Amino acid sequence: MARRIMHIDLDAFFVSVEQTLNPELRGKPVVVGGRPDRRGVVASASYEARAFGLHAGMPLITARRLCPQAIFIEGSFTKYREASQRFMAILADFSPYLEPMGLDEAYLDVTGFESIHGSIRQMAVATKQRIKEELGLSASIGIASSKVVAKIAAELSKPDGLLEVAAGEERSFLAPLPVAKLPGIGKKAERILNGLGINTIGQLSNMPLSALKSHFGVSGELLCRYASGIDDSKVEPPGAAKSISRETTFGQDTRDRSLLKATLGYLSERVGAELRQKGRQAGCVTLKLRYADFTTITRRHSLVKAIDADQIIFDTGLKLLNRALSQERQPVRLIGIGVSSLTEPGRQLDMLDSSEQRLERLNKAIDRIRKKYGFTAIKTGRTLPLKDIFPESDDGYTLHTPSLSR
Ligand code: TTP
Ligand code: MG
What's the whole-model pTM score? Predict the structure, then answer.
């Protein structure tokens, strides 16, 4: 029996959440991402704004030029995370085979669920209705026999759409679409294919596999399968996180060592808090820097022993930072810190030496107080310079981009 898979994606997610909270924004060109006089890009644009050519990733300055009457909102990640959790909870009511992809989209395997809802189409209608009634948000849903086709169907149906591709119709459904609609085909691959005279997915599916492989290596095979609507990958519930990271772009490129250090300190605390909250320890710390000319570097350090202390994440990151800055004269645009090689803590308490025990007790106490009174209830010395620069809330500081500050 053919599988039935739904792909659900909320329409203009960040903007729509803002519109539910402020009805005056409804039906208007609205952009979430930041103020148009600051630098940054559009994170989400209402469909009214898209009519003027605005889209995610466009610089805010360009967006304002194309649509001066648009309303620009800084946004707040906390609101979007909450809406996302409620959205996923609704989906989980419909099927336990749920694979969230980011905040506002998910796959649902609904094979065999016809009997409960009459048809899968009616099930999708009911799903959309609950999302509308309970969250005030509109969703678009694609239904097909595979993830890749369901995703493309959902995107094609937007906004507030519902599109089902019957089993056996995958190939003819995909054939007339431009190659760029296929997941995995970015700007570069699109240019290569167009250069070869391949514009539609149908043309792509007729290319010899050897030609695809010579241009795209091992990915060639996957492209060939996708182009024919073949994708056996399962809808899988999320596994444990492989890494945890936080990053931020500065309002202005900076060489200010104390700002860089304090920001690194704050981001390290955010990473450490999530690491401990997930009950994991990390064996590797990675620093990320983007310089003024957009050159981006990552520097990693493997630790002898897995850790979960803010102090060690920060100290390791700071060493990497100092080394990187000594080799580069440009100002810094973005800084990020992450941990990976995550493991369950397996050690025994009495094996810890006293300095580790002290750190562990300290971080536990900090976590407890922050859980009760908010993140900024405790400001460590290393982050103090941020106090006068960034607005603070119970959830922590709001760095450069409020719609993404988490
Ligand atoms: P998308 O689902 O790609 O975009 P959207 O929901 O705003 O619009 P639609 O699905 O109707 O086309 O992404 C979901 C959210 O993720 C989006 O509201 C904001 C955020 N996002 C960014 O912050 N930066 C980006 O470049 C993109 C694409 C999305
Ligand atoms: Mg969306």
Answer: 0.75
Q: Where are the alpha helices (DSSP H) in 182-309?
A: 187-195, 201-205, 209-216, 219-227, 257-277
Task: Tell me the two tokens of residue 204.
Answer: 């792509």
Q: Which ligand is nearest to the CA of 155?
A: 1
Say yes or no: CB of residue 139 within 6 Å of ligand 1: no
Sequence-separated (6 or more) residues with CB below 8 Å from residue 138: 10, 11, 16, 128, 131, 132, 159, 160
CA of 7 to the centre of ligand 2 (A): 11
The pair of three-digit structure tokens given for residue 169, joined into one six-digit string? 């119709």
CA-nearest residue for atom 5, ligand 1, is 12
Atom of ligand 1 nearest to the CA of 44: 7
Question: Tens digits of per-residue pLDDT, 204-218?
Answer: 999 999 999 998 887
Six-digit token pair at 308? 């979960």
Q: Which residue from 271, 349, 361 is spatially nearest to 316, judged by alpha carbons?
A: 271
Kindly state if the Cβ of 47 falls inside 6 Å of ligand 1.
no
CB of 303 sitting under 6 A from ligand 1: no
Instruction: Look at phi and psi of residue 253 and say left if phi exceeds 0, alpha if psi is from -120 to 50, else beta.
Output: beta
Q: What is the pLDDT of residue 70?
A: 98
195: number of Cβ within 10 Å: 9
**Phi, psi at residue 155, to the nearest 5°?**
-65, -40
Q: Which residue has the tokens 């959790």?
A: 85
